[in-house]
Design a protein that fits this description.
The complex is a heterodimer of chains A (587) and B (663).
Chain A lengths: L4 E3 L2 E4 L6 H11 L5 E6 L4 E7 L4 E6 L7 E2 L7 E6 L7 E6 L8 E6 L6 E2 L7 E6 L6 E5 L8 E5 L8 E4 L16 E6 L7 E6 L5 E3 L7 E7 L6 E7 L2 E7 L7 E2 L7 E7 L5 E8 L2 E9 L5 E3 L17 E11 L2 E10 L8 E7 L13 H9 L3 E6 L8 H4 L7 H17 L3 E11 L1 H12 L6 E5 L5 H7 L2 H11 L5 H10 L1 H4 L7 E6 L7 H13 L4 E6 L9 H18 L10
Parallel strand pairs in A: 28-29, 28-30, 30-31, 31-32, 32-33
Antiparallel strand pairs in A: 1-2, 2-33, 3-4, 4-5, 5-6, 7-8, 8-9, 9-10, 11-12, 12-13, 13-14, 15-16, 16-17, 18-19, 19-20, 20-21, 22-23, 23-24, 24-25, 26-27, 27-29
Helix pairs in contact in A: 1-2, 1-11, 4-5
Chain B lengths: L15 H9 L18 E4 L2 E4 L6 H11 L5 E5 L6 E6 L4 E6 L7 E2 L7 E6 L7 E6 L8 E6 L4 E4 L7 E6 L6 E5 L8 E5 L8 E4 L4 E7 L6 E8 L2 E7 L6 E3 L9 E6 L5 E6 L7 E6 L4 E4 L7 E7 L5 E7 L2 E8 L2 E4 L7 E7 L5 E8 L2 E9 L5 E3 L17 E11 L2 E10 L8 E7 L13 H8 L4 E5 L9 H4 L7 H16 L4 E11 L1 H12 L6 E5 L5 H7 L2 H11 L5 H10 L12 E6 L7 H13 L4 E6 L9 H20 L1
Parallel strand pairs in B: 33-34, 33-35, 35-36, 36-37, 37-38
Antiparallel strand pairs in B: 1-2, 2-38, 3-4, 4-5, 5-6, 7-8, 8-9, 9-10, 11-12, 12-13, 13-14, 15-16, 16-17, 17-18, 19-20, 20-21, 21-22, 23-24, 24-25, 25-26, 27-28, 28-29, 29-30, 31-32, 32-34
The chains are: A alpha+beta (587), B alpha+beta (663).
């Protein structure tokens, strides 16, 4: 076995030297840009976007589909947010920036005809969530200026007129959402009384709600009202992929915009003229880019085309959405679990499989862009399966609760059912399956290795929850009760005994196949000592374990250099334990 | 298609000749430096930078510079083979990388993401092939390696040996072969090689040579290769090589040495268009018939040098002339020559006809706008701008356009004092008298042109300093006599031209002759050091970047592949009399005469002017008690190519000038 060694802030134990060829291949996928929509500028001639050319995200203008991203700001630190003035006769904007990662976000005003940004806030407190008034003469934002703790709501005039004033002084976390056009009511997405979050109109005087998408059995994730109030755009999360609907304010004339790529949408913004709609969408094949749809013709134009390193765009794979049956029944039939399947096109079948399990667990695997999945498919010839097992969001309130408390391991059984399904697919090699996940997904990877060790080749666990009792005890006060709703109350003896029993720390000896464990030394939620203890237990039983600890990370690998290195280790681990012999480089 | 202009700048340009010239001018060599000369001066290190005697740069200096330092440039690498767009170079982050554009004002779509800069790239001219060849080195070593990049697969393949110096990659028109030069055989001579896209080293040796040879262009039928050989600014040769048989035929053998700059095949492959100074003071464009051995003048009536030339597959010829630093563009069709009107007034760099011969892509740079890409509709003369490179969000309308002035110097031409051309950036605000920064170009066989310089704009707009950029004797662009006026024993005549400029400054009421600084890089760094030794009492301070400090050590230590070429300019240091002369004029031997503050800047891996040149100068100056600031970058060569290093360099320079010139 390789001697333990130190590499910068990383402690590497049991991990072989990473050959240069691995990094050379992964680098091509890692230099990825994203475009973020910040608004239509002026009368809608240009889009204000955020993207990163150098080290940090900055403001840019784009004036045509596929047009140049012309950089407007050049700060060392990132611009976190931009908002163009909605008044068509103005070419000005607001943006948020901090100094040196302090998170003391400040609001700046930039008039594009003047050139120099003007600081709008005190330079010290934390400010964000800018909302322009409809006329573009003032804006609302939150600020901690009063006491450095509470988020009050403020209104200010960017053009130097009236002094900023606090319009809501409150305790806790308050923020402005939108200015009224007329003040009669609100459009909201809510799950009050329904299984899914639906779009409603809330009449402020009567308190009555009118359902506008009550018949769509999926969650509404975003909504936007057109400038003259005649249309509402609503984004719906349909089995992970975003759908865009337009609906009249009274719920009539609803239609779905067709022709969207499969992916995950961010903000949608009406053009000042009201007939074009801009939105950001990220697809499995491309990072988040900006599109504009013509609402009259349905024509879609792609305004940005962000880079994925030097990797070939054409080679990127779109996953297939499949459903597999699991152990229990719904309405007399086997319950179906949704799963995204990234399938190599050029690899001889059956292909090896990586099962990617998301964290949360109240979260959802979405078909967003992930270079690592594309790398596995294109470079290692591996199929990636990403299931949304019970407990995931996006499938209704009841489904999200199916793994709570004593039903924790029912979600692990959904992985077992996936392995059964893999065994039935001629194109997949049931003899070469790996599981990987981070955080709660790391728990799932460990639990899968414990329960289905004989059907798995190896496992990859990053900052995985090893013990639910210590995890709950280490969770910050304000989140503790929320987490107890999910996992159970560890102060109750019976629940404590259950949680101890199912925790991987207690059952590490049941793991018999190679594991890659990665951990942040400063993780406040999952103590590094638990990972170490599991590593020791597994090694006592002769299991090969690659163990990597980052001294400068917490619950996750956030520094690019660390995350990039971890990816290289993961690739090598999969090459050695899953894919068989590494494929040769093309001549 | 292909082939264009030569710029005097040391960045690699799309043309074989340019790269070659760039490699040879200026200076060179390698060092083990970085160990401090025992100076007693505090040395601190920040990343790859080694810093001595430089105070902390205040945040306010950095803040003023920030937008200027965020200037981008676009470099033309040519049309994609299917004419679907342009391949270009630009810097989004730290270093220049390859991008492509599919429409005017379109997104610059980045293709490469290396920490080290890409120096040059060329797209396969074959229709339907989306492939590139590009050159990249490490840490400024100039040991360029060539790589093949296939856009369809995203894969890169090394074509060269990974160790020697390689360059001038030239695609065959069918896109199936690549010619280039390499010093792989002995580290000195530039042999010619031919390989295939994606094939690993070794390539086929097409011609073993002595000296600096380089491929220029494949013949229209891809069977012959036009080859250049560079000896000096006044002497170069052209050949036609059959790479399959090794048969080599010299073009236009002459008894007297001739200087060729650009050359390109005619569309029918029967002749060449070439810029030559045979029998003339200036280089003019000629058509040379290969079978007859005869040439026909095409620009003899234009009393300036012809620069780049490109020929479309349909036979249209584009060429530029260099008129006192400013470029003019001409088109030749069906025997008719016409000047292209209404171009922005500035400097034209690379040019490339598309495959259909309908559009000519050109690089244009003006004093108020960075180098950007345009296309010229050959039929209508309509000009379309493709890129708008950023200047840190600044309004470039407020930028200064330099005036061209001429000042008299010590000797005479036809009974009147010789006049030296000089570009003059005058601050917009205020009446003066303004402090002055004199910028001296390198080469010396080069020329200060009205390029875009953010530093000059910063000096004029933010520091209220006038900038003077003279083309002293020895500069190119003013005829073949003028370029030799500083050769050998006449080296210091060019320094006297700086003295004459100081005289002129003292006669201008708007300029403050009591506050003058000199700044230059490479050979211009020598000029700064020499000016500081000769005119120390009339100069406030000097900035020398990668400057020669001693011609004997320089010639001894510069890389072998360029040594003989530099002897042609400076003299042969092996000749005792010349050696004594070179020693006597070298700044290291006159350092005691430098009494004013100096800022010395150097790249550790510089193959032209070795870092030892800087360090020996430092030691000599400190011996006489002058204030010296020193900046050494461990990951740079002949000039800084990484943004973070450049940003530190320029902010330290701004601080140096604020302290020693403004006050």
């Amino acid at each position: 076995m390789t001697e333990p060694r130190q590499q910068g802030s990383l402690s590497l134990d049991g991990i072989p030297e990473i050959p240069d060829r691995v990094g050379e291949r992964t680098r091509r996928y890692q230099n990825t840009r994203y475009a973020t929509l910040y608004g239509w500028l002026g009368a809608g001639e240009e889009l204000l976007i955020g993207t990163r050319f150098g080290e940090t995200n900055q403001l840019h203008l784009v004036s045509q589909p596929g047009g140049a991203r012309r950089q407007l700001t050049f700060f060392d630190g990132p611009v976190w947010l931009g908002r163009a003035n909605p008044n068509p006769s103005h070419r000005d904007l607001l943006f948020i920036k901090d100094e040196g990662g302090s998170e003391a976000y400040q609001v700046y005003y930039l008039d594009l005809d003047e050139g120099q940004p003007v600081l709008m806030t005190d330079g010290v407190s934390r400010n964000s969530d800018i909302v322009w008034s409809n006329r573009g003469d003032r804006f609302a934002h939150y600020s901690t200026v009063r006491n450095g703790r509470d988020l009050d709501v403020w209104v200010a005039d960017p053009h130097g007129g009236a002094a900023p004033r606090c319009v809501l002084e409150a305790e806790g976390y308050w923020f402005p959402v939108a200015w009224s056009p007329d003040g009669q009511g609100l459009f909201v997405a809510s799950d009050q009384g329904t299984e899914y979050r639906t779009l409603r109109y809330l009449d402020l005087s009567t308190g009555e709600q009118r359902h506008l998408t009550g018949d769509i059995p999926w969650d509404v994730t975003d909504l936007e009202v057109s400038p003259c109030g005649d249309l509402i755009a609503a984004v719906v999360d349909e089995d992970g992929a975003s759908r865009l609907y337009l609906v009249g304010p009274d719920g009539t004339d609803r239609r779905r915009i067709e022709g969207l790529p499969m992916g995950v949408m961010g903000r949608v913004l009406f053009h000042p003229g009201g007939r074009l709609l801009a939105f950001g969408i990220e697809t499995p094949r491309a990072p988040r880019d900006i599109y504009v749809v013509d609402l009259d013709t349905g024509e879609m134009a792609r305004w940005t085309d962000s880079e994925v390193g030097g990797a070939s765009r054409a080679a990127m794979v779109e996953p297939e959405l499949v459903h597999y049956p699991t152990f229990d029944e719904v309405d007399g039939a086997a319950r179906q679990i949704s799963c995204y399947w990234y399938r190599p096109s050029a690899t001889p079948e059956p292909t090896p499989v990586v099962v990617q399990i998301h964290g949360g667990p109240e979260s959802q695997f979405l078909p967003s862009f992930d270079w690592f999945h594309q790398f596995l498919v294109n470079e290692l010839g591996v199929s990636v399966l990403a299931p949304n097992v019970r407990g995931s969001t996006g499938y209704g309130k009841a489904f999200a609760a199916l793994d709570n408390g004593l039903r924790r391991e029912d979600s692990v059984r959904d992985i077992g059912a996936l392995l059964d399904w893999v065994g039935q697919q001629p194109s997949l090699d049931a003899g070469r399956v790996a599981v990987m996940g981070a955080s709660y997904g790391g728990y799932m990877a460990l639990a899968s290795m414990i329960h289905y060790g004989d059907r798995l080749r190896c496992g990859l666990c990053c900052v995985g929850i090893g013990n639910f009792v210590t995890f709950l005890e280490n969770t910050k006060g304000y989140r503790q009760d929320l987490r107890r709703t999910e996992y159970g109350d560890e102060r109750e003896p019976e629940m404590r005994a259950f949680l101890e029993r199912i925790s991987p720390t207690a059952r590490a000896a049941a793991i018999t196949r190679p594991m890659l464990m990665s951990q942040g030394l400063n993780d406040p939620r999952v103590p590094a000592s638990e990972a170490e203890q599991m590593v020791a237990t597994m090694r006592e039983h002769g299991v090969e374990v690659w163990y990597m600890v980052a001294a400068d990370e917490g619950h996750g690998f956030l520094k690019k250099a660390n995350a990039d290195f971890l990816a290289d280790v993961q690739v090598l681990f999969l090459e050695e334990h899953l894919a068989g012999e590494p494929r040769r480089e093309a001549p | 298609m292909r082939y264009v202009c030569i710029t005097g700048r040391w960045t690699m340009s799309k043309r074989a000749g340019a790269a070659v010239l760039a490699a040879l001018l200026l200076t060179a060599a390698q060092t083990s430096a970085a160990d401090s000369p025992d100076s007693g001066v505090e040395r601190r290190e920040v990343g790859n930078l080694v810093i001595e005697g430089i105070p902390e740069v205040p945040d306010q200096v950095k803040a003023r510079l920030l937008q200027y330092q965020n200037t981008r440039y676009a470099s033309l690498y040519g049309w994609l083979g299917d004419d679907s767009g342009l391949v270009m170079g630009s810097r989004f982050g730290e270093t220049n990388q390859i991008h492509y554009l599919t429409q005017p004002n379109g997104a610059r779509h980045q293709l490469t993401f290396f920490a080290e800069p890409v120096r040059y790239a060329a797209a396969s001219p074959a229709p339907g092939r989306r492939e590139l060849v590009y050159a990249r080195d490490v840490g400024g070593s100039e040991y360029y390696q060539l790589f093949h990049f296939d856009l369809a697969t995203g894969r890169h393949a090394l074509l060269t040996d990974g160790a020697s110096r390689n360059g001038s990659p030239v695609w065959s028109r069918g896109g199936d072969r690549l010619a280039f030069y390499s010093t792989a055989r002995n580290g000195r001579d530039w042999d010619l090689y031919v390989t295939r896209p994606g094939r690993e080293w070794p390539a086929e040796l097409a011609l073993e040579v002595e000296g600096a040879w380089y491929p220029m262009e494949w013949s229209p039928d891809d069977r012959r290769l036009l080859v250049g050989r560079y000896v000096s600014i006044s002497e170069s040769y052209l050949y036609v090589l059959d790479p399959d048989t090794g048969e080599l035929v010299q073009v236009n053998p002459t008894p007297e040495p001739v200087s060729y700059r650009s050359a390109a095949w005619s569309a029918d492959g029967r002749g060449l268009y070439l810029a030559s100074d045979e029998g003339a003071e200036f280089r003019t464009l000629r058509y040379y018939d290969l079978a007859e051995g005869e040439q026909r003048e095409l620009s003899a009536d234009i009393p300036w040098d012809a620069g780049g030339v490109d020929v479309s597959p349909q036979g249209t010829v584009a060429f530029t002339t260099n008129e006192d630093g400013r470029s003019r563009l001409y088109l030749l069709r069906d025997g008719v020559r016409r000047a292209v009107a209404d171009l922005p007034l500035g400097v034209i760099g690379g040019m490339d006809f598309d495959g259909a011969g309908e559009r000519l892509a050109v690089e244009i740079e003006t004093p108020t706008s960075p180098r950007d890409l345009y296309s010229l509709e050959v039929g209508t003369g309509e000009l379309t701008r493709w890129t708008w490179s950023e200047v840190g969000g600044l309004d470039t309308d407020s930028f200064v356009t330099p005036a061209l002035v001429h000042y008299p110097t010590f000797d005479e031409v036809k009974g009147a004092p010789r006049q030296i051309a000089c570009y003059y950036w005058k601050p917009r605000e205020g009446e003066g008298p303004f402090p002055v920064v004199i910028r001296i170009h390198g080469g010396p066989e080069s020329q200060y042109k009205p390029y875009f310089s953010w530093l000059n704009q910063y000096l004029a707009n933010e520091m209220g300093a006038a900038v003077l950029a003279p083309n002293v004797r020895g500069s190119s662009g003013y005829g073949k006599t003028y370029v030799k006026l500083d050769n050998g024993y006449r080296r210091e005549d060019s320094v006297r031209d700086i003295g004459a400029l100081l005289d002129w400054v003292s006669e201008q009421p708007e300029l403050d002759a009591g506050r003058v600084a000199v700044r230059g890089g490479s050979y211009g760094g020598y000029m700064v050091l020499a000016a500081m030794t000769h005119y120390s009492d009339r100069l406030r301070c000097g900035i020398s970047s990668v400057g020669i400090s001693n011609f004997v050590t320089f010639l001894t230590n510069t890389k072998e592949y360029r040594r003989d070429l530099r002897r042609a300019e400076y003299g042969d240091e092996r000749d005792p009399e010349m050696r004594a002369f070179l020693e006597s004029i070298s700044p290291t031997n006159n350092a005691h005469r430098i009494t004013r503050p100096m800022f010395v800047i150097q790249g550790l891996n510089d193959p032209r002017v070795p870092a030892t040149e800087a360090e020996q100068m430092l030691t000599a100056m400190r011996g006489s008690g002058a204030e010296v600031w020193y900046l050494l970058a461990r990951d740079e060569g002949h000039g800084f190519a990484k943004k973070a290093n450049r940003d530190y360099q320029t902010s330290a320079e701004a601080l140096f000038l604020e302290r020693h010139l403004s006050r």
